[in-house]
């Protein structure tokens, strides 16, 4: 009887140890909050992300992936949209659009901003962190959770500031585009509608863009 209990105990102990050795990255915890974001087309998306890990671990590389299918069977070679060490490892269409909000990974902040959002950005995304323990052992972890991007139609309007106008005097009209994005500047077209119904597009010096 004792022998049996001892055998069972030993077995469970060794099982747990091998389990830990197989997955040394288990104590890394990645949190997306919220788990779904709904950016507007043409603007940008911020994916808020943070992680925790033991003090004896240092994160070196953050890689963001776009899930190619519902099961999110990622192929690292083709599905990465951001690589913190080598941007050429990211998909062409995302390379210049994605950046970390906080470049210093010791801040445990993995939030990214994606600029110039289009409907094709709809989908699930995952983060992989790789780093090393003080012992020198390397480890990597892919977030088991996913964060969803559901792109909505643009409904923010630019705001226009018109000063009092005096005939014959030049006037400065100020227009502010929606969003707080660092992507490509918006295309601005000023149009003028006189007393009639005709709409005239103003050209030349009417499209100064300041950010
Ligand atoms: C991971 O972090 C979240 C949020 O801080 C927490 O709710 C959760 O319990 C943590 N999980 C583990 C395994 O530490
Ligand atoms: C890191 O520290 C944790 C406890 O903080 C310990 O359980 C783990 O074995 C350590 N891992 C390495 C690789 O040193
Ligand atoms: C970056 O990644 C590309 C594509 O995988 C590879 O050809 C290149 O050698 C890498 N550059 C560095 C500095 O690792
Ligand atoms: C991550 O960094 C960004 C930019 O500094 C900041 O706005 C955000 O609040 C940070 N998130 C966390 C969880 O600290
Ligand atoms: C580090 O890796 C070596 C070789 O893979 C392994 O023998 C050792 O147990 C690992 N150390 C820790 C603390 O996990
Ligand atoms: C903005 O203008 C550029 C250059 O004329 C053009 O390539 C681009 O498609 C325009 N973008 C939109 C959203 O109209
Ligand atoms: C409006 O445009 C039409 C066609 O281009 C033109 O025939 C008409 O004279 C214009 N009206 C005014 C008030 O400019
Ligand atoms: C537009 O106006 C600004 C300010 O008056 C001037 O500095 C700039 O050279 C002008 N640009 C063009 C293309 O006329």
Architecture blueprint of SSEs:
Blueprint: H1 2-22, E1 29-32, E2 36-37, E3 45-47, E4 49-52, E5 57-66, H2 76-79, E6 80-83, H3 92-95, E7 98-100, E8 112-114, E9 123-133, E10 138-142, E11 147-149, E12 159-161, E13 174-176, E14 191-193, E15 199-201
Parallel strand pairs: 2-11
Antiparallel strand pairs: 1-4, 3-8, 5-6, 5-9, 7-8, 9-10, 9-11, 12-13, 14-15
One 2-acetamido-2-deoxy-beta-D-glucopyranose (NAG) binds next to loops.
CATH-wise, what's the superfamily? Immunoglobulins
Order of helices and strands: HEEEEEHEHEEEEEEEEE
Structural class: alpha+beta
> How many helical stretches?
3
Question: In whole angstroms, how far apart are the ends?
Answer: 78 Å
Q: Count of DSSP E strands?
A: 15
Query: Ions, cofactors, ligands: which are bound?
Result: 2-acetamido-2-deoxy-beta-D-glucopyranose
Report the portion of residues in β strands.
25-35%
Query: Roughly how much helix do the residues carry, as a percent range?
Result: 10-25%
Biggest β-sheet, characterized? 6 strands, mixed
Mean pLDDT score: 80
Number of separate structural domains:
1
Overall geometric form: elongated
């Amino acid at each position: 009887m004792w022998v049996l209990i001892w055998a069972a105990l030993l077995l469970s102990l060794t099982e747990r140890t091998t389990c830990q050795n197989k997955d040394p990255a288990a104590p890394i915890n990645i949190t997306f909050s919220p788990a779904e974001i709904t950016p507007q087309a043409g603007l940008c998306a911020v994916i808020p992300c943070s992680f925790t890990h033991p003090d004896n671990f240092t994160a070196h590389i953050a890689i963001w992936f776009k899930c190619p299918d519902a099961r999110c069977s990622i192929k690292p070679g083709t599905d990465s949209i951001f690589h913190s060490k080598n941007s050429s490892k990211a998909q062409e269409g995302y390379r210049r659009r994605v950046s970390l909000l906080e470049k210093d990974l010791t801040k445990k902040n993995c939030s990214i901003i994606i600029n110039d959002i289009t409907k094709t950005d709809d989908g699930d995304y995952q983060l992989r962190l790789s780093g090393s323990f003080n012992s020198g052992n390397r480890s990597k972890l892919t977030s088991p959770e996913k964060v969803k991007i559901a792109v909505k139609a643009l409904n923010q309007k630019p705001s226009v500031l018109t000063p009092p106008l005096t005939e014959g005097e030049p006037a400065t009209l100020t227009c502010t585009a929606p969003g707080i994005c660092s992507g490509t500047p918006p295309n601005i077209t000023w149009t003028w509608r006189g007393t009639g119904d005709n709409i005239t597009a103003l050209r030349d010096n009417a499209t100064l863009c300041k950010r």
